[in-house]
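User: Some background: our group keeps a shared notebook of sequences we're curious about, and every so often someone picks one and asks for a predicted structure to add to the entry. Today it's my turn. The entry only has the sequence so far, pasted here. Could you supply the structure so I can complete it?
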Amino acid sequence: MSKEDLKDKTVAMQENISETDDDSVEELFEHYRFTADKGQSQIRLDKFITARMIQTSRNRVQMAIDAGYVLVNGKPCKANYRVKPLDIITLVFPYEKKTSDIGPEYIPLDVVYEDDDVLVINKQPGLVVHPGHGHFSGTLVNAVAYHLTYGDKPGAKKKDKEEFKWGILVHRIDKDTSGILVIAKNEEAQMKLAKQFFDHTIQRKYVAIVWGNISEDSGTIEGNIARDPSDRMRFKVTKDPLQGKHAVTHFRVLERFGYVTVVECVLETGRTHQIRVHMKYIGHPLFNDERYGGDKILAGTVFTKYKQFIQNCFDILPRQALHAKYLAFVHPSTGKEIAFDSPMPDDMNAVIAKMREYCKSAK
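Assistant: Of course. Here's the predicted structure to add to the notebook entry:
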């Protein structure tokens, strides 16, 4: 790998640093750029790439080319394309699964759908998706490894020579966000699903409870999202067009309670904490979102009864009020679109019901 190629990869890896508590899609990819030498002999594209990525198999490279991850001079090419001198080859690779430090653990999963290629989970709040940053066990990945190896029976023992099975993440949702998550069960499925997320063709809808009475019935929030320099665990909208990553969120009001609003959010992009950051940006942080200031009373009266009511709601819903309700994607094998709709979780339902009753009694 040349110094230029190594620099491109290093920059990409630095840009992709992310916390485990993370709903970003783009952080699950690594970027490469190769420039063919002036004296480059004309060899197949898949052989050219495999020779420069010695830890990646030719089969994986071919799957990436077939899925459309590889561009030559800005255009997609087939694996048998003959690389020419000074050709510029760019790749976006989903990270390969790393399983050496991941052990199967029995954690009950709400499995919505499963076949040979995909596993769709309705994730409970409080469950970290991937090990790391202080969460080396008790994660969704550990639970999926157990499910795929042993099924749903607790207390299973590993048999001699038994191989563990691992799912492969193609996206994430925050630890304290509930809802639908899809996991690939093989590399080919990962390639095809991850490409849909990267191209923003996946349909994702969330339901959130936010502070304040949003004046519009629907709208679109646009703003580049960058890491907050004052707090590395937080993100913010930046007005500098050269900073951050482009992000678009569409919202629609579902129900109003005067001091809070229930909204549906549709993601056009998949940035870290996107809904949480965008709603704060327009002055409506998520209800009880500690990281973005929603765990305080931001709208309403000064009466003791109201303060106690909000505290009771916080106790019922001890997390940000965000649920990944709907997910639709093209199945990696059948080519047909499949969709999943998750029921609202008990804690959010309970708070919404409580708010309805409060509004009635306040009239």
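Suggested note for the entry: The chain has three domains: 3-94, 111-198, 203-362. The two ends are 70 Å apart (CA to CA).
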